[in-house]
Amino acid sequence: MSFNNLDTLYRQVIMDHYKNPRNRGQLEGDHITVELNNPTCGDRIDLQLKVENGVVKDAKFEGEGCSISMSSASMMTQVIIDKPIEDALKMSEMFSDIMLGKEMEGYEFDIESLGDIQALQGVSKFPARIKCATLAWKAMEQGVEKDDKQG
What we know:
Blueprint lengths: L2 H17 L12 E7 L4 E10 L2 E10 L2 H14 L2 E2 H15 L27 H24 L1
Antiparallel strand pairs: 1-2, 2-3, 3-4
Helix pairs in contact: 1-2, 2-4, 3-4
InterPro entries: NIF_FeS_clus_asmbl_NifU_N
Family: Belongs to the NifU family.
Protein name: Iron-sulfur cluster assembly scaffold protein NifU
């Protein structure tokens, strides 16, 4: 597949998650809530996590923002549900490294394990957009930390 075709496919995946977000909404019952915003551009996320026995059992989000931040939140919730917290945090570290353009060696996950998130690789070429892409991931990290302190 040529670069232009791949770029077009990635844009379509991002726009699909933006227009049809997965796991958008509110969780019922006990859950962790983290609210974060990116004051630079106005992106805002309200992430809810249900964690049981060290596993992310469910994740939902609400918020406002650009296609990058909202798509990233949709994609992230898809990959962390039913994952042990340690795996979710490792995926977050890997995603952060992808956004910073670092080498992807030494991870137990490959980029394909991140599902649609690989469509966001191109964001690394636009430093001003990296915070948009990582906002939901930072919220998840804070939520997991909050759960660890409560548990």
